[in-house]
Amino acid sequence: MDSYIPPYSISEKMLEQVSSISEKVGKITSHRDLESRPHLRRNNRIRSIHASLKIEANSLSLNKVRDVINGHLIIGDQKEIQEVKNAYAAYERIPEIDPSSVKQLKEMHRVMTYLTVEESGVFRKGEEGVFSGDKCIFVAPPPEMVPELMDKLFLWVKKNEGKVHPLIMAAIFHYEFVFIHPFADGNGRLARLWHTVILYRWRSIFAYIPLESQIERFQDQYYDAIDHCNKAGNSDLFIEFMLDMIDQVLDEFILQVHKTNAETSEYVKKMLNLMEYDIPYTSNDIMAALGLKSKETLRKNYLNPAIDLGLIRMTLPDKPNSKNQRYVKL
Question: Which residues of 34-54 are buried (b: 16+ CB within 10 A; e: fewer)?
């Protein structure tokens, strides 16, 4: 098999972006900000799954995605519910994935598309294109070319681990994967998962950094970058775009951690210590556990600050005063 080198070049901007990201990652890992905050890890994982599926037109809200992952029954489209379960199963396996294995890619596609598509875990047999809404950005290579193109791309990944910086490699792979479009369905979800897998091999915190949520916010620019690179014949602009997305989402995460550190009061800490994760509590349950007499004190000193910090959530956020309201530790 001929050696394949994806067309790209390293710009001064990319080097600056890699340096900025590396510095921010170093600050996070040195303080063990994720290891000591299971609620942040879980919340960010849920945000990643919700955003990646939302890009693919899954209509379930963030709260419904959380409920599905927590094993609760919800009312919704069964295919969309299954997509959430599949994505969660796939993301849970990030630590064991070899990013240079085509076999594992097919297995993860099978996990990601279980019970939702006909061609699960196999390369496509028909023509495909990449769409942004109703707009076709480009038509993918014919299906007979897919196996060889994928083998060459994965061989490039394997040969260049440790040579090409993972931040650059992940973006190149992401673009090339989308361009080849190897599956009949699920390509975007797999491309974003594999981007995370490659970054995880560099720094494990990326398993819980919600990069997908940043892409979802800038979805139009995401597809514009792909379109530009198709016309330019290289992935340069897409690399810069993805590095910018990572840099921004790390800023958000650092602010999230600092806010939690600075604003979590002793009242809130005491309440959280008495609550189990993902268990719904009534206000009376919490008051009894804390030995409180006043609901106003509970709301002012405990519940409202914890909700504002994203440490607990209401089960009925649209009906804050409902008698059926419950509070769940995240």
Answer: beebebbbbbbbbbbbbbbbb
